[in-house]
Amino acid sequence: MLVVIVGPMFAGKTTELIRRVERQMIAGKTAVIFKPALDSRYDASSVVSHNGLKLRAFVVPSDEDGVRIIEREGAKYDVVAVDEIQFFPPSLAEVLDRLAYGRLVVAAGLNLDYKGEPFETTMRAMAYADKVVSLTAVCKVCGRPATRTQRLIGGKPAPADGPRILVGGAETYEARCRRHHEVPGRGIRP
């Protein structure tokens, strides 16, 4: 079974991934969590949620070599989890699909980038998923459910010409609802 957890930053995706893996470990299943090497925000060798939950992880490069390692090593476990799937190449989606035959696979990632554009790897994984768990955060502007991630530079929305991938936390990003997410070059939507 393939479960894909999606949503904006601060929605609890990693918390939900950890919760699901811990439940399987309590049931006596062998489990492994993979994380991309470029995400060392809280701990270089563990997946860590924004609220401090933490589990040891197998750190892999966020390229095709990393995808091959996930496929090879993941096949040895009952439960395979991959955090921050948006950082991996789209080929990860097919690997997750193959691994899901005979084991539980849990993947978590951002569905949209800071410009509001879909991440291809997450989108493809969602298409293969047996279950998609779509989480929301809380909009920092109005308090409504947030489905988008706003990148900020100096407290203002980041320009559209910035890098797509910029690892950061609350100092760089905040959750926003559709109404208050500012798409660079388009301002606030009506």
Main attributes?
190 residues, alpha/beta, Rossmann fold, Wheat Germ Agglutinin (Isolectin 2), domain 1, 2 domains, six-stranded parallel beta sheet, three-stranded antiparallel beta sheet, 4 helices, 15 strands, 22% helix
Overview of this structure, please?
The chain is α/β, with parallel strands linked by helices and 190 residues long. It folds into 2 domains: 135 residues, Rossmann fold (3-Layer(aba) Sandwich); 51 residues, 2-Layer Sandwich (Wheat Germ Agglutinin (Isolectin 2), domain 1). The protein is 22% helix and 29% strand. The protein has a 6-stranded parallel sheet, sandwiched between helices. A hairpin with a 5-residue loop joins strand 3 and strand 4. Helix 3 runs parallel beside helix 4. It starts with a strand and ends with a strand. The model has no long low-confidence stretch (mean pLDDT 89).
Count of individual beta strands: 15
How would you sum up the major sheet? 6 strands, parallel
- What name goes with the CATH superfamily of the largest domain? P-loop containing nucleotide triphosphate hydrolases
> What is the domain tally?
2
Helix fraction?
10-25%
- Strand order in the sheet with the most strands: 5-2-6-7-1-8
What is the average per-residue confidence, as pLDDT, rounded to a whole number? Answer: 89
Strand content: 25-35%
CATH class call of the largest domain:
Alpha Beta
Task: Give the number of helices.
Answer: 4
